[in-house]
Design brief:
The chain has 168 residues and is α+β, with helices and mostly antiparallel strands. The protein is built from three helices and twelve strands; from the N terminus they run αβββββαβαββββββ. It has one domain: Roll (Pnp Oxidase, Chain A), CATH 2.30.110.
């Protein structure tokens, strides 16, 4: 039996909905101020030069502003950032508040307190795939952060990953 496109899309989404992924917040400075969104699609692409990829679901609004920015920052989140990740995941959510732990570095770029790491990067290429845009960014700076468990996301829920549990 052959799947139609709608069935295949639903099946595809159901598989990835329960596939856990690390959670980040991607930010940039624009002429209108800082912008950012929660992303679970960040992946390493290369080591020499260091490069990452991520995808955004549309090229408008916050995602469009990130695509037009000269420089990006990728903040790797810890479980303490669940509320902040939730705010950055919805349109109109509260962003860049001192209560969330945001400050700005000497270059004016956003910095999140307690992040496990922050990468700075510049977009090198983009590729439209359906209604999404795949971004390849070269990493131009790495800032080590807090020694904390990574925040994971699966089935619309945030999880604390504890590497001490080992393999089952």
């Amino acid at each position: 039996m052959q799947e139609n496109a709608l069935e295949r899309a639903a099946h595809f989404k159901s598989i990835f909905r329960v596939h856990p992924a690390g959670v980040t917040i991607i930010t940039a400075m624009t002429d209108d101020g800082p912008v950012g969104l929660t992303a679970s699609s960040v992946a390493s692409v290369a080591v020499d030069p260091p490069a990452i990829s991520f995808s955004v679901t549309r090229a408008t609004g916050t995602a469009g502003a990130l695509l037009r920015a000269d420089e990006l920052q990728v903040h790797f989140l810890a479980p303490e950032h669940v509320a902040t990740a939730s705010q950055f995941a919805v349109s109109g959510g509260e962003r860049f508040t001192p209560e969330q732990g945001w400050t700005f570095d000497e270059d004016g770029a956003p910095r999140l307190a307690g992040a496990r790491a922050r990468l700075r990067g510049e977009t090198r290429d983009t590729l439209r795939v359906g209604g999404s845009v795949l971004v390849i960014a070269e990493v131009t700076g790495i800032e080590a952060g807090e020694d904390a468990h990574p925040l994971l996301f699966a089935d619309r829920t945030f999880y604390d990953f504890d590497p001490q549990l080992g393999v089952v």
